[in-house]
UniProtKB/TrEMBL annotation:
Record organism: Jonesia denitrificans (strain ATCC 14870 / DSM 20603 / BCRC 15368 / CIP 55.134 / JCM 11481 / NBRC 15587 / NCTC 10816 / Prevot 55134) (Listeria denitrificans)
InterPro entries: DNA-bd_dom_put_sf, MerR-type_HTH_dom, MerR_fam
DNA-binding found in the keyword field: yes
Keywords on record: DNA-binding
Gene3D superfamilies documented for this protein: 1.10.1660.10
Superkingdom as given in the UniProt entry: Bacteria
GO MF annotations, alphabetized: DNA binding; DNA-binding transcription factor activity
Protein name as it appears in the record: Transcriptional regulator, MerR family
Domain HTH merR-type: 7-74
Keyword Signal recorded: no
């Protein structure tokens, strides 16, 4: 199956990541361009773009680079038909662990959002109260 390759600018536009961020992820080993053009430009496949999507989703949940790398390795093992059953089992366990961690981080973010919304409401009430008190009658 032929892969349609995309240059880094198009990948940046599609993913919402900056060129610098994509290059950084390459530098730290999270992504590797599938090919290079004759002029040396990085070329990415849909699979590469999907990897960037995984990394992008993990970033706001405060997963470390090592954790991102670990999940990507597990996903690679699961998508490779040649992966032995023992490694596939480990990869599935890792996937379940990451799913649980992501769910817990979502719960923590919901709690933080609830606190922030309560604080914003409190400030709004105080603002309204003080504006009313300082309005000449």
């Amino acid at each position: 199956m032929a892969h349609h390759h995309r240059q880094i600018g198009e990948v940046a536009e599609r993913t919402g990541l900056s060129l610098r961020t994509i290059r950084y992820y390459e530098e730290v080993g999270l992504i590797t361009p599938s090919a290079r053009s004759q002029g040396g430009f990085r070329l990415y496949t849909e699979e590469d773009i999907a990897r960037l999507g995984v990394v992008k989703a993990m970033k706001p949940l405060d997963f470390s680079l090592d954790e991102m790398r670990g999940l990507l390795e597990s996903l690679d093992a699961l998508s490779d038909d040649a992966t032995d059953p023992a490694r596939r089992g480990e990869a599935l366990e890792q996937l379940d662990m990451f799913q649980g961690a992501a769910e817990e981080r979502c719960r923590a973010l919901r709690r933080q959002l609830s606190i922030a919304e309560g604080f914003a409401d409190q400030l709004s009430s105080l603002s309204t109260q003080h504006k009313a008190a300082n309005t000449p009658t």
